[in-house]
Design a protein that fits this description.
The complex is a heterodimer. Chain A has four helices and no strands. Chain A has helices at residues 2-11, 26-64, 68-90, 96-107. Chain B is of the alpha/beta class. Chain B is 46% helix and 9% strand. In chain B, helix 2 (45-61) links the parallel strand 2 and strand 3 (72-75). The chains are: A mainly alpha, B alpha/beta.
């Protein structure tokens, strides 16, 4: 059967432009639209359920167990340590930034 | 039995910025069953700005949620930052999820739409004002963490390069 189909197609090579593909019937189109609507409504139901879950369960839980303060405290303390290290490095006699500033000010002497 | 309709975009074409004209369309449950788009593009920019003000004032002065269960969008040439409502310049920017072919729905789909109606009402009754406040707080907290992390990485990078 497969062989026959293949040979049929080979016989029609070059004549494809003259052959009209059978158009799908309006009944099939209608079924397709209907299926599309059903899927759309099912997806919307999932979306609404997720929204409900976020509003009812997730948001209160996140509010109750917020990690915001803990994280920002940690970040702030790390930032202050890094700043301290940077100032110490920059204030050294032979630091690059200090040398550059000396050169810059020397120009205006 | 009345068949339900699909929750696709309800597009409202506004032609002028008169309060009476706009208020005809503004109801507290306008976005309960479907997303709503106010098309302001046919108006002059100054009228668009006025219309945006009226619509925004309706939602914020009465604490009416404009994001849930479905969104209220404004189709306008104005900058997105002029309002707290969602502004899009082209209809292609609207969430594609709700772009579906409009046609009558059958009994089976109507039953499903009926079930969704309960979910929509459930969301509407879940204290949306509080939800919106919580979401804003949550957003702000995430922005704080992001900014602090950006600063931390910046100092870290400098130290890494000079040491």
């Amino acid at each position: 059967m497969m062989k026959k189909n293949k040979s049929d197609r080979e016989d029609l090579k070059g004549f494809e432009d003259f052959i009209e593909e059978p158009k799908s019937s309006s009944l099939e189109n209608k079924k397709e639209v209907s299926f599309e609507h059903l899927t759309f409504l099912e997806n919307d139901a999932k979306r609404l359920q997720r929204l409900k879950k976020i509003h009812r369960d997730k948001l209160p839980l996140m509010k109750k167990n917020s990690q915001h303060e803990l994280l920002t405290e940690k970040q702030k303390s790390e930032i202050s340590v890094l700043k301290e290290m940077l100032f110490q490095t920059f204030s050294q006699e032979n630091s690059g930034i200090r040398q550059n500033l000396i050169q810059l000010f020397d120009v205006f002497r | 039995m009345k068949l339900m309709s699909l929750p696709t975009y309800q597009i409202i074409q506004l032609k002028n910025s008169s309060t009476e004209e706009i208020e005809k369309y503004l109801t507290p449950d306008m976005n309960l069953r479907n997303p709503v788009v106010f098309d302001l593009k046919q108006m002059r920019p100054e009228d668009q700005l006025e219309a945006v003000g009226i619509i925004q004032n309706f939602f914020y002065s009465q604490n009416i949620p404009h994001q849930f269960p479905y969104g209220v969008y404004l189709l306008s040439h104005l900058d997105k930052t002029v309002a707290r409502l969602m502004i899009v310049s082209q209809s292609e920017e609207l969430p594609s999820f709700f772009n579906t072919r409009k046609s009558k729905i059958n009994m089976k789909e109507s039953h499903l739409a009926d079930k969704n109606k309960i979910l929509q009402q459930d969301i509407m009754n879940s204290g949306l004002q509080k939800v919106e406040e919580d979401l804003q707080l949550f957003n702000q907290q995430h922005r704080d963490i992001f900014n602090l992390e950006k600063e931390r990485k910046f100092y870290h990078q400098i130290l890494k390069e000079i040491l």
